[in-house]
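Before surveying the methods themselves, we first show a specimen of the format, giving the amino acid sequence and backbone structure tokens:

:::
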Amino acid sequence: MIIVDSLLEKRAAQGNPVRVGIAGPGFMAKGLMNHILNTTPGMEVACVYARTPEKGVAALELAGRRGHLVSVVDDAAGVDAMAAQGGTAVTSNHEAMTQANNVDVVIDCTGSVEFGCELALAALAGRKHLVLMNAEVDATVGPVLSAKFEDAGLVYTGCDGDQPGVQMNLIRFVRGLGLTPLVAGNIKGLQDPYRNPTTQEGFARQWGQDPHMVTSFADGTKVSVEQALVANAAGLSVHKRGCLQRDHRGHVDELTSMYDIDELKKLGGAVDYVVGTKPGPGVYVLATHDDPKQQHYLNLYKLGEGPLYSFYTPYHLCHFEVPTTAARAVLLGDATIKPLRQAPKVEVITIAKKDMKAGETLDALGGYCYYGECEKAPVAKAENLIPVGLAEGCVLTRDVAKDEAISYADVTVPQGRLCDKLRAEQDAMFPQPEVHA
């Protein structure tokens, strides 16, 4: 969104920056704070929420913000006072951030589904736009949350820089050219569903990341979540449980010959991912055009004879692109990626990573117990399968075999969770069509 830089420059010249509240002081949030504070004119970090305020203070100090420009506060008035001085408030009360007048948009960098639900409703109550770096909460209850924000005249959005946002930007670009996207894909370097925090500990330590987060990348859960978000934002499906997930070591353009276009059209388009394809770690969209005259031009412009034409972005730059999302939300009322207002097309289901016994409690995403895979949402509903974002804390009521999909009939769900309440509301708001044999 090239227009965003000009709009932010105007806000900088007016002395009226877009004021951001950041939830969570973790790895990605640290990079985001550093980028906004030092290289994003027209934007300011007004508040950082951290359960342990000292971690928020340390994250700001890493970005060069310290001393009288940082203060730990308890309420919205404290946040507003610091923002008025051009500083940053740190708080362990997320409602202090969402209720503050001097916060325009909240960015969720936490990765927690349950807290993400609480934060989303608090942002809604405080009339704040919401940017999610928390893809898991979006994949679990995104449609109902998006509808609530839309009804309130607020923006609910995933972010530029993360693969779903990059794919949706590319889909919108391709549609603007008059083509029909039939595949939206993600390029991975590794896929092993049985990785766990022990196997990924060394890599996580090397990069200063959390082993559970790194595991969710390696075991396929994160890419499945990401592709479900794209499917539900663009109205696409999947070929089969788990996507096609080919291992292809060539160039992304070669994928145009690997899909059955009639099958794609019957599906209404599909999301997918490939392992090892170049250029990685990018994303791709394969699209078709029905006009022979325009096909001639596309061939002239070196995109080939079709029927599928390849478009790709060779990178995704995570936190570097998130300020663009915040600016799009505040200044243009535009979401980078959000679910369509309809029943989800794709669900991420919970698959056992190992043989487990009755009585075992399922651990967190990116753990030792399970991984996530894409499935057609009506199939997931018909089989009563647990969305991966709701699996944590569930207790098995029977033995489950490795690679078996886990259903609600197999577990006892923790009581009193907001995420379950929102999910029930979503299922009632957007019922799934019945699956016919």
Observations:
- The chain has a mean pLDDT of 96.
